[in-house]
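Input.
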Amino acid sequence: MGAATLLCLQLAASMLLLVSSSAQGGYAGIVNGTVAKEHSRPYMVSVQKKNEEHICGGFLVSESFVMTAAHCITWGVDLTVVVGGHDITNQKSGTRIPVKYYHVNPGYIPETQNDIAILQLTEGAKQSNSVKWISIPEKDKDIKGAEVCSVAGWGATKTKGPANNLLLQADVVIMKRKECNQLWKGYFSEKMLCASGKAGFCQGDSGGPLVCKNKAVGVVSFYERNNCNNPKMPNVYTRISAYLPWIKSILKSVKQSAKTVIDHIGEDVDELHVSYPLLMRLSLGVVNIMGAATLLCLQLAASMLLLVFSSAQGGYVGIVNGKVAKNHSRPYMVSVQKNKGHFCGGFLVSESFVMTAAHCITWGVDLTVVVGGHDITNQKSGTRIPVKYYHVNPGYIPETLQNDIAILQLTEGVKQSNSVKWISIPKKNKDIKGATNCSVAGWGATKTNGPPNNLLLEANVLIMKRQECKKLWKTYLSEKMLCASGRAGFCQGDSGGPLVCKNKAVGVVSFTDKNCNNLKKPNVYTRISAYLPWIKSILKSV
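Output.
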């Protein structure tokens, strides 16, 4: 991100109620707690930087997933977790596993709203006496006041104290919602829980579980600033049961098998823009994706992706066998750019949100969008708006382009005009019938490896019956995709643009054959209606 953005976020960070400790080692822990019996909480996880520095707590909710706080995830910092540990300074205590993907709740706001995240591990943890996952609620239900629960962690026992070697634990009492709301006022929401008592949490305990009746019901979130020892305010936790649909969608995603991708588009690995499967938000909760080894692995995988999007600037061509669109006839169209260079399409679905393909989002690259544009090389054509947050579908798999859909949240809402409007999307999860006439548009190339286009081009396409497409794409096609064929189609640089049927955006440009000009294989789009609950949750968050 730019220096101005970084400075802004640093200033915002200084106002956060919760400050996570990054101190190493030490001898203290949970405030007024006791040392936990070794391995009595086998679900506990120490979230650490690669230099083996404890920064947050977490807890196993399945063999491959760790739940923690969203504010524990920092842009540019690769994380590992230690499972089965007790003394985290002892190399032989526990097993270290790198984090593969980072899933931050799409509604996360650094100022403490929706402070929950899930870390997907590179390998599953093996259950043993020292390693087990903990149950979470099955229904969205509040916890009654006065219930006795517990919290644990390796954090400090006093404000700004060092982190602890040994796992400490303490009993806490759930506070009635009304009482907590009176104390925390505007900071407290229905998706949070309060707990008080003689004990509580401190820096370094963030992300750990609030446990009631052997179930994790909350995630350590924030407390009274600079006062762990004698707080007048209760500790606040994110209430897990309020996020069950989102949690389930992520835990199910690991069951999708990552298949080998077929073709190489013919570009150098160094020139590829590798996408990453997580929800990225350019804020204090922004996610770093991978270490160097994983990055190289994904770059090699990316070299085989069926669709490679161009980041070249300028040019004179566009959609394959298309024609120049009438100026502003598609006012929802958006050019997604980096360094003022077009590399993906997108489309407005509300005043503040642009839908695009997940593979268009690249780690560490700040994006802007141009709305209301036609000739994207003309600085006066359209309005440039920076992207504030990046919401990538939690089920996105780059190797197979499964769930290849993302939503960009803009820094400011667009104003509707003759050249700027948003397009409707389906209201129900419904397939599109074969032989339906639709259209696609974009500033992409008209031939493989060609440059992007200055002017917006469009083309008519025909929806292909699912059974016919399945024969051609075989296992690469899922029910959450659509196929379209005809004399025209899309190419590099069109990724993320809309498939439009009867004036509704029904699909997102995803992938095609390695040769754009070979129309024997149909183009493949992500089917928007398959993701309506996820889309609605993001659009409501603003």
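The chain is about 10% helix and 25% strand.
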